[in-house]
Amino acid sequence: MTLAPYVRIVARGKGRARALNLQEAQEAMTLILSGTAEPEAIGALLMVLRLRGEADTEIAGFTAALRASCAPLAVADLDWPCYAAGRTRGAPFFALAAKLVAQAGYSVALHGWNSHQAGAADLRATLEKLQLEGDGLTYYPLEQLSTAAFDLLKLRDTFGLRSCINTVLRMWNPMAARGSVQGVFHPSYRGLQSRAAALLGDQNLTVIKGGGGEFERHPAKKTAVFGLRSGQELNEAAPAMLNETRRLHDTDLAFDIASIWSGSVEDPFATATITGTAALALWTLKAAPTLEEATTLATELWHHRQSQSRRTG
Questions:
Q1: Per-residue pLDDT tens for 54-82?
Q2: Cβ–Cβ < 8 Å for 242, 268
Q3: What is the pLDDT of residues 256-299, one digit of tens each?
Q4: Where are the domains of the chain?
Q5: pTM score, two decimals?
Q6: How far is CA 46 from CA 16, 56, 111, in A?
Q7: Contact at 8 Å (CB) between 54 and 94?
Q8: Which residues face 184 on adjacent strands?
């Protein structure tokens, strides 16, 4: 088989080109992931979509193909993709938020490609240094989960541009978790990912514009929250938690994440970032009926993070 028919659909010309429907997109990505598609055709398809912008059906179909291409893994409660490039990121406070969710008794699956990150933004180093993995929190490197998907992501080095693969990886949910949290860098993708998830039959999803593209809430800003709850569209706003003018990741205000976690250093902004992010994740899992109650739960978990045993979910 060849990708040519699918490239022809999206690149036929003004007035004649159209978006791939869900089945066509799934067929095209299945062919790409099989390793038999022509590299020129892969580049043509991905860059046409980059220029035009992806449709809901295309993202849903590509995601369905990726989900079907991998062997089943242990099911988790919460899917937490982390694929930000790291250039605008500081300390990965979302990792501490994920640990709080795990301490609440839920299994949390982080997955991503983060070995290229350095300094304060290095997620893998943070997980190891703070010994966050275990007791409900697991990290899966993309290069181990799917070499085919990893190769597609690395095409960014060839194109000099991101492609829809970045979005598909966030949508993937390789552990078939009952809930997912996703961060985006560009606000327009919040609705795209929510609509694509609905096409796939996903039920519980929270998407926000997060720090550097990760699922990480800015505590001093009102946060638009998109996604799904029990399969129904979610479009709400989470209020600011602090009255402070500050960037989420400010290179002039570097944090020692280990000191924040241990409690030897206290910073209200960092703490609110962590608990506010954890609250959204707990709300996604329906650990609390409202975001306000989820925030109370996250705050309680933070205060007792060093002393409590993991709860039974």
A1: 999 999 999 999 999 998 889 999 999 99
A2: yes
A3: 899 999 999 999 999 999 999 999 999 999 999 999 999 999 99
A4: 4-69, 78-303
A5: 0.94
A6: 18, 15, 23
A7: no
A8: 209
- pLDDT above 70: residue 121: yes
Q: Homologous superfamily of 4-69 in CATH?
A: Transferase, Pyrimidine Nucleoside Phosphorylase; Chain C (1.20.970.10)
**Helices and strands of the chain, counted as H and E runs:** 14, 7
The fold of 78-303 is: Pyrimidine Nucleoside Phosphorylase; Chain A, domain 2 (3.40.1030)
The span from the first CA to the last CA of the chain, in angstroms, equals 47
Q: Which amino acid is at 12?
A: R
Q: Which neighbouring-strand residues pair with 53?
A: none
Q: What is the C-alpha separation between 296 and 279, in angstroms, rounded? A: 8
The 10 Å Cβ neighbour count of residue 171 is 26
Distance between CA atoms of residues 215 and 217, nearest Å: 7
**Which of 12, 32, 222 has the alpha carbon at shortest distance from 146?**
32
Give ∠ CA 103-146-281 in degrees, rounded to 5.
25
Residue 245 confidence (pLDDT) above 80: no
Collect all residues with Cβ–Cβ distance below 8 Å to 75 and sequence separation of at least 6. Answer: 175, 176, 177
Overall average pLDDT of the 193-219 stretch: 95
